[in-house]
Design goal:
2 domains, eight-stranded mixed sheet, 26 strands, single chain, SH3 type barrels, binds manganese (II) ion, 9 helices
Length: 404
């Protein structure tokens, strides 16, 4: 039997060990947890019991102290945790600090500093171009192949998986409206994305090159960039998304360290345009990730977007967002952009899946052009792990509540 009763092949086995923050029932105390199968290891308590030097990094109410500690420490802590959950002689010492997942409350795992969202899927960008600019000669804007397009989002409304999302209200104006109207969004959508979590900061004035990506980014999580398409369509020219997206962004409760995803690294799609030196990854190690995402609405899978198809990598996005001298802070979060593959069942938004509402999805719970009140959206994913295993990513789930 594998250690600690984790079934063989469990995507949250000892090869994964994602980090989160939890509290036990009847307690307000939040502390760092590490997921092992269907259990949570109280990492700080385990560290204290084993007299580990990392106890202080693992005992706070957020992951930020661990994130700030830097790459060498991330690897050392992971090595220690791996030993605690695999070496038989530790089993007795660790056992009291394992709690069933079903018995704990999971919280937002880190204090989010800045939040940025990108637009890195060529399939998604072309689909959006075809839907919103049908008369344009090229479905991509002229800058798309030259820089990773992004916008600044709202870090204060990043919420953990399981948090309900109230339908936002705002201005919209359809072609038939003479003047804008105000009311609850009628085109509430999702964007299936991957979020990257910055650990080690960088000073102002020091761009982070592609080669330093792993020195700064600690790990990744699933991310749902909820989007009110009608609000977005009326407000976004010329400065980009604003209130159509800032009402809520959901992230998974588990942050998967990049150290758990080495077997999932892949070369990104072939670059069709020459890149400026700070973005040119032709001679760099591969920074793409083979993550298989699944999107479910009310428990019914509607799409399976492949992250390996993303044109811009997280390393390029980090290099771009610091190339002007902007600093990084511990807890910075950046979204990949909607993940859409080339096939009709690989699209990461309802906007694309229903072609802006023209072709509603036929779900067991009824037809859907966009989300209805009470709908629950859940993103899950896995990646290839060592020796044929799967590395599970924590799910991100949220239910739409009626406008207030
Ligand atoms: Mn987005």
């Amino acid at each position: 039997m594998p250690p600690f009763d984790v079934p063989e092949g469990d995507p949250f086995g000892p090869h994964n060990l994602p980090y989160g923050v939890f509290s036990r029932s009847g307690s307000d105390t939040r502390t760092v947890g590490v997921r092992l199968g269907d259990q949570v290891l109280d990492a700080g308590a385990a560290a204290r019991a084993l007299a580990s030097p990392y106890a202080s990094l693992l005992s706070g109410p957020t992951l930020n102290p661990l994130l700030a500690a830097g790459r060498t420490t991330w690897s050392d802590v992971r090595r220690a945790l791996t030993a605690w959950v695999t070496v038989p002689s530790h089993q007795e010492a660790i056992a009291p600090f394992l709690h069933p997942l079903s018995s704990v409350t999971l919280h937002l795992p880190f204090e989010v500093a800045d939040y940025v969202d990108f637009y890195a899927s060529e399939n998604h960008a072309r689909n959006v171009g075809r839907i919103f600019r049908p008369d344009a000669a090229d479905s991509l804007t002229p800058n798309w192949k030259h820089l990773p397009i992004g916008y600044h989002g709202r870090s204060g409304t990043v919420v953990v998986s399981g948090t309900d999302v109230v339908r936002p209200a705002g201005q919209r104006r359809s072609p038939s409206d003479a003047v804008p109207v105000f009311g609850p969004s009628a085109r509430l959508d999702i964007e299936a994305e991957v979020g990257f979590v910055v650990g080690a900061p960088s000073p102002m004035g020091s761009p982070v090159p592609l080669s330093a990506f792993r020195d700064h980014v600690f790990g990744l999580c699933l991310l749902n960039d909820w989007s009110a398409r009608d609000v977005q369509a009326w407000e976004y020219v010329p400065l980009g998304p604003f209130l159509g997206k800032s009402f809520a962004t959901s992230v998974s409760a588990w942050i998967t360290p990049l150290d758990a995803l080495d077997e999932a690294r892949v070369t990104p799609p072939e670059r069709t345009h020459p890149l400026l030196p700070y973005l040119d990854d032709a001679t760099e190690e591969p920074y793409g990730y083979d993550l298989r995402i699944s999107v479910a609405v009310n428990g019914h899978v509607v799409s399976e977007p492949p992250f390996s198809t993303m044109y811009w990598t997280a390393a390029q996005q980090l290099a771009h967002l610091t190339v002007n001298g902007a600093s990084l802070r511990t807890g910075d979060l950046y979204g990949s952009g909607t993940v859409s593959g080339p096939a009709p069942d690989q699209l990461g938004s309802l906007l694309e899946l229903t072609w802006n509402g023209r072709d509603p999805l036929d779900l067991p719970t009824g037809k859907r052009a966009f989300l209805e009140d009470g709908d629950e959206v859940t993103l899950t994913a896995w990646a290839p792990g060592p020796h044929g295993t799967r590395v599970g990513l924590g799910e991100v789930s949220g239910t739409v509540l009626p406008a207030g």
